[in-house]
Design a protein that fits this description.
mainly alpha, DNA polymerase, domain 1, hpI Integrase, Chain A, 3 domains, 3-stranded antiparallel sheet, 8% strand, elongated
Length: 347
């Protein structure tokens, strides 16, 4: 028996799963038996850990991810998203043995993902990553969680994006120099993002068709955006005499590199106006004004370079004037239907 009475009291004498001897003495039998039960439970956990460690020695990351997904009780849509994100993790880290994954490898992977993902998408993937390795630790597949040493993921702050008014855009265009005005018009009249504008070359501008070919940053297809008269005038003045098809539209000296340069561009624009704004607000302004007149939402998605499943609605910011105009248009259509002869409908 592991619990027996001695001259000094009740003694617990047993060995754990690692064959280490544990000998404890208590004054009462109840405390001794409670401690013995706790030690027995810990020994079961240790034996489970040893079995998992032996199993994890030959367990690759992909196999461990499959076991994790099989144990998850979630909806099908969540399972598809997690499967896609975790398969990307396996490709990024490599299908290496689970025990060989280090905190540094996980941190380098997240740094690479930070360059191509939006903040909320990165935050969601980081939560899945923490949950995955926490499950590996709880199942005794690994002795320690390699993600806990990284900073805890925090939700990004809410976007401050908005659509500028016509007065604000007029003030911005009139107070910018030639170099900044072109960048403003590419976003305001063509919906180009900062990187899309800097990827434009002379061969992408077609003055005969009065359109520019924009190559999105996140997709491989391009879109053809018709030019407004003022954007066409600015490009014609800039490209007069330029013959090289690879000549950049935006000078390389002002080419942004990373988030700090984009913040610097927004700062340069704010210095010339009397209101608060960001450069990306111009793209939201383009989407908002386009949605007010376009008959099909897919047209707005196409001109923004969004995939058909992308929620373009977040780029549309209706104003009070837009709502008032919509109510007036509805009332006008209703009155026209009432005043027309019976049986005749407005198409």
């Amino acid at each position: 028996m592991s619990v027996h009475e001695t001259a000094k009291g009740w003694q617990v004498d047993r060995r754990d799963a690692y064959n280490r001897r544990v000998r404890l003495t208590f004054a009462g039998e109840g405390a001794a038996r409670a401690t013995d039960a706790r030690l027995d439970q810990e020994a079961d956990q240790q034996r489970s850990a040893l079995r998992s460690f032996r199993k994890a020695a030959d367990l690759n990351l992909g196999e461990a991810v499959n076991e994790y997904l099989a144990a998850r009780v979630v909806s099908e849509s969540t399972r598809r998203r997690e499967t896609q994100a975790l398969n990307t993790l396996v490709r990024g880290l490599g299908n290496k043995p689970l025990a060989s994954i280090t905190p540094r490898a996980v941190a380098e992977y997240m740094e690479r993902r930070k360059e191509i993902l939006a903040p909320w998408t990165l935050y969601r993937e980081s939560l899945w990553l923490h949950a995955l390795f926490q499950w590996f630790t709880a199942q005794w597949f690994i002795p320690a969680n390699p993600v806990t040493s990284n900073p805890k993921p925090t939700a990004p702050r809410q976007s401050r994006a908005r659509a500028l008014s016509y007065g604000e855009t007029a003030e911005l265009v009139s107070n910018t120099n030639v170099r900044l005005r072109l960048r403003v018009l590419l976003a305001l009249d063509a919906g180009c993002s900062s990187l899309e504008a800097h990827n434009l070359r002379r061969r992408h501008v077609d003055f005969e068709a009065r359109a520019i070919d924009v190559h999105p940053v996140k997709q491989h297809a391009f879109r053809r955006v018709p030019m407004t008269p003022r954007l066409e005038s600015e490009l014609a003045q800039l490209l007069a005499g330029v013959t090289s098809p690879d000549a950049p539209i935006i000078s390389r000296a002002s080419r942004p590199i990373g988030e700090k340069a984009r913040s610097h561009l927004s700062h340069m624009l704010r210095m010339r106006v009397s209101f608060e704004m960001r450069y990306h607000d111009l793209r939201h302004t383009f989407a908002t004004r386009l949605a007010a007149v376009a008959q099909r939402p897919r047209i707005v998605q196409y001109l923004l370079g969004h995939h058909p499943t992308t929620p373009t609605e977040k780029y549309d910011h209706p104003t009070e004037e837009d709502a008032r105009a919509a109510i007036q248009a509805m009332q006008q259509r209703e009155s026209e239907q009432i005043t027309r002869p019976q049986g005749e409908q407005i198409p």
